[in-house]
Specification:
The complex is a heterotrimer of chains A (about 375), B (about 280) and C (about 110).
Chain A: E1 6-10, E2 22-28, E3 31-38, H1 46-50, H2 55-63, H3 70-85, H4 91-120, H5 123-144, E4 153-154, E5 157-158, H6 166-190, H7 192-198, H8 206-212, H9 217-221, H10 228-231, H11 252-275, E6 292-300, E7 303-312, E8 315-322, H12 331-335, H13 343-351, H14 355-358, E9 362-365, E10 368-371, H15 374-381
Antiparallel strand pairs in A: 1-2, 2-3, 4-5, 6-7, 7-8, 9-10
Helix pairs in contact in A: 2-3, 3-4, 4-5, 4-11, 4-13, 5-6, 6-11, 11-13
Chain B: H1 2-30, H2 40-50, H3 60-79, H4 90-111, H5 115-145, H6 163-176, H7 202-227, H8 231-251, H9 257-282
Helix pairs in contact in B: 1-7, 1-8, 2-7, 3-4, 3-7, 4-5, 5-6, 5-9, 6-7, 6-9, 7-8
Chain C: H1 3-10, E1 35-37, H2 47-51, E2 57-61, E3 64-67, H3 77-81, E4 89-91, E5 108-109
Parallel strand pairs in C: 1-5
Antiparallel strand pairs in C: 1-4, 2-3
The chains are: A alpha+beta (about 375), B mainly alpha (about 280), C alpha+beta (about 110).
Chain lengths: ~375, ~280, ~110
């Protein structure tokens, strides 16, 4: 960076960007010339923390990787362990897992939608979306006992079963949320200012999405039709017919569309699953004994979440978590130049990064744990590649 | 009754702060929230007054700009609506005071030496060039229409004859008060903390108080122009403008700088054209 | 109902804000709040201490166990593995137990 560039630091504490990231934005007037990203503010060493724990303990640590999509981490972990054990859960367990998974997707997208509206300046919709999100969180609290960290998945089974009145309660909340979301979605699309602020902003063309290995709503909005629920189905996704929301242009408006459509689609999935809930008892939970290695992936609200676990003597020897937000860590450096300053938070927000999921810097080298400095990390592991 | 006006003028900062509290409450209710108590801005300001000022620059402008921003608006309030004094061509003085307050605002941003402040000030300056002229044109239209040379002589309900100017004035008032759509101009923006980045303690007190005074000042100014001397019309006009401002704040997202520039340009043209119309019509009489 | 009309409608409705702390919401029954330790039911097996993911449990003797709520992540594994019937560990619905002193962050004992 030349000395006379006007550098405006955005973050790590910024009212604009809600994630702890430092973006050094080089400006010339109002136009962004170059962006340098500095991360590492929420690195907690989760992979290291997982090592040495027995399978049930590690489940709870893994679920706390992320606050917004916590059940997806639980589910991915459990899927991995069940793959290692070669175990296929009973149908009711699978059904309930599907319901909770989709509820989490709804909750995460509603949180994002509120956050997006806040970046555009429409505070009212921010409050309205979060008000709807509270209904979903209520469902979670009733069934699992936790609003954010649910901890209901257990290896081979669930911790609690749904009570008699729970399906009705869930349906009532979910239908209300879906109805309101549809209304607000239509409002957004009709509101010219929203459209003009989001259209053709932060466009990720299909080729770029493929090259960078993007997954999730971002890839789908760019026209790459991938969804782990379709490619590698788990739980009841192979049974339920649902549509994959996708767009073409790959700009922020398309991402808004895709995510809000997914909320409504999730509501439909929940309805379908609950209408066909099998009537059986779920197995009681117990401590497990696991040996070997395995991997699994699930479709988190942000994309494809991949887990690899290796167990030795019933302890986790190595865990590798690859979160969906990881792929688009550096993409901001490509997207932002050429944009106006006002678009910077809009673009960052439209990507829906989750930096607490993202921070993974610990690398084992020749049996010795080596902590990389940011420069080395960037040199060795930054995308693409 | 000049004494009553004087008392009201001295009390105007309190009225302005109270108005801000009501504004926040109304917006919160519209967003289905409970909102802060109506006296919350008083608490905020009192807290700021007591805090230590941490200067980032030992600059005379840095120290003095927020205070001057506040004071110029306070002087402006002397003319409108309280009419403590009234003299020929006082509307020119009013325009001067308004532009001066905006200039001090911009100066506050630039002298703070932070990238956020400077960026915010640059944007504000871009808009200022256009909207101050629009404001001038509109005010002159009203004065000419009422065939008066002082603000006190504005005819009651002069809005009825000057609808385009009124519209332009409302547009300018929204931009100047930094209602959400337009705060790319300066403070409270997502992107930048804005002009007030480097200010703390008493300086920030004056900046915040200035913001509140500005909003109050503009709604009062518009009410005085639209309704003239009649107290009932003035109050009605004030309430309507206030609610309209709150409504537009809650339902419109933020415009980009580019759009805001076009918006104030449009306001400018409307105001100028209406001024020409008024002058032309007036030249018959 | 469009956004513009809904905004006006909310002016006349009661807001959705819960008036905490005057009106504290009572969580659902399964909510994992502050830990309750039933000292009489405890059999002293130490399974909870061994399985806690964050080592928040300190075993002194049968009937006297400290759960450090400051470290506790409220996962519930201790309750799951407790072999006593009825279980010696339960979760209350108390969620606002923050304190200004670290020593105060302890479980409830019954």
């Amino acid at each position: 960076m030349r000395v006379h560039d006007f550098v405006m630091p955005v973050g790590p504490q910024s009212p604009a960007i809600k994630e702890p990231i430092l973006l050094k934005v080089c400006l010339e007037g109002e136009e962004v010339q170059k962006v340098r990203m500095v991360t590492g503010y929420t690195h907690r060493g989760i992979e290291y923390l997982l090592e040495g724990k027995n399978p049930d303990q590690a489940l709870y640590v893994a679920s706390r990787v992320c606050g917004i999509c916590s059940i997806t981490h639980e589910r991915a972990y459990v899927r991995t362990v069940e793959n290692i054990l070669g175990y296929d859960a009973p149908e009711r367990v699978k059904a309930i897992r599907t319901v909770l998974f989709e509820l989490e997707r709804m909750q995460s997208h509603l949180l994002w939608a509120g956050f997006m509206m806040h970046e555009i300046g429409l505070e009212t919709l921010f409050n309205y979306f979060w008000r709807e999100r509270e209904k979903v969180l209520d469902c979670f609290e009733k069934i699992t006992g936790g609003r954010v960290h649910h901890n209901i998945n257990k290896i081979r089974t669930l911790r609690y079963d749904m009570e008699e009145e729970d399906p009705e309660f869930i349906l009532q909340q979910v239908r209300s949320v879906a109805r309101k979301t549809r209304d607000y979605y239509n409002d957004c699309m009709k509101e010219e200012v929203v459209v003009s602020r989001l259209k053709n902003v932060g466009t990720i063309p299909k080729s770029m999405a493929l090259e960078w290995g993007l997954t999730g709503p971002i890839a789908r909005a760019s026209g790459v039709r991938i969804d782990t629920r379709k490619i590698d189905p788990y739980d009841w996704y192979s049974r339920i017919d649902f549509e994959m929301a996708a767009g073409k242009r790959g700009d922020a408006l398309e991402r808004l569309k895709v995510r809000l459509t997914e909320v409504m689609e999730s509501a439909r999935i929940v309805e379908r699953v609950l209408s066909g809930l099998p009537d059986e008892k779920i197995p009681p939970h117990s401590l497990s004994r696991v040996e070997g290695e395995g991997h699994a992936r699930v479709e988190a609200p942000r994309g494809e979440l991949f887990y690899y676990l290796r167990f030795k003597n019933n302890r986790v020897e190595r865990a590798k978590i690859r979160t969906p937000s990881f792929s688009y860590m550096k993409i901001l450096e490509e997207l932002l130049p050429g944009m106006v300053v006002g678009d910077v938070p809009v673009i960052v927000a439209s990507l829906d990064p989750c930096f607490s999921c993202l921070e993974r810097v610990l690398v084992e080298k020749n049996g010795r744990v080596e902590e990389l400095r940011e420069k080395e990390f960037r040199r060795k592991y930054s995308c693409p590649g | 009754m000049p004494w009553l006006n004087l008392v009201l003028w001295v009390a105007s900062p309190f009225l302005a702060v109270l108005a801000d509290g009501v504004y926040r409450k109304v917006i919160a209710r519209m967003q289905s929230r409970r909102g802060p108590p109506v006296v919350q801005p008083f608490y905020d300001l009192r807290k700021l007054w007591a805090k230590k000022r941490i200067p980032t620059k030992n600059d005379w402008f840095f120290m003095i700009s927020p205070f001057m921003y506040c004071t110029t608006l306070f002087v402006g309030l002397m003319l409108v609506p309280f009419q403590v004094i009234s003299f020929p061509y006082d509307f020119i003085f009013l325009l001067y005071v308004t532009v001066l307050s905006s200039a001090f605002y911009v100066l506050a941003g630039i002298s703070s030496d932070s990238p956020y402040g400077m960026l915010a000030s640059m944007r504000e300056m871009r808009l200022m060039i256009i909207y101050e002229t629009a404001l001038a044109a509109a005010i002159i239209s009203f004065v000419v229409y009422s065939s008066t040379i002082t603000l006190a002589g504005i005819k009651d309900l002069s809005i009825l004859g000057l609808v385009p100017s009124a519209v332009a004035l409302i547009a300018v008032a929204l931009v100047e008060s930094k209602v959400t759509q337009f705060d790319t101009g300066a403070a409270e923006s997502e992107i930048l903390p804005g002009v007030s980045t480097e200010y703390s303690g008493r300086s920030l007190f004056f900046l915040d108080l200035g913001e509140m005074l500005k909003r109050f000042f503009f709604i009062s100014l518009l009410s005085s122009l639209f309704a003239g001397g009649n107290l009932l019309f003035w109050i009605v006009s004030f309430v309507i403008l206030f609610m309209a401002m709150a409504y537009s704040d809650a339902t419109t997202p933020r415009f980009t700088l580019h759009t805001t520039v076009w918006y104030v340009l449009a306001a400018f043209f409307v105001a100028v054209i209406d001024l020409m119309r008024v002058l032309w019509v007036g030249s018959w009489a | 109902m469009g956004l513009k009309t809904e905004v006006l409608a909310w002016l006349f409705r009661r807001p959705v804000t819960e008036n905490y702390p005057e009106q504290k919401k009572k969580p659902y029954q399964r909510f994992r709040g502050r830990i309750v330790y039933y000292s009489k039911r405890c059999i002293g097996c130490r399974l909870c201490e061994r399985n806690c993911p964050v080592n928040a449990i300190v075993f002194h003797e049968k009937g006297r166990i400290d759960f450090d709520m400051g470290k506790c992540i409220l996962c519930g594994l201790c309750r799951d593995v407790c072999p006593a019937r009825p279980k010696a560990i339960a979760f209350s619905t108390e969620y606002d137990y923050s304190s200004t002193r670290k020593e105060d962050l302890k479980n409830l004992v019954k």
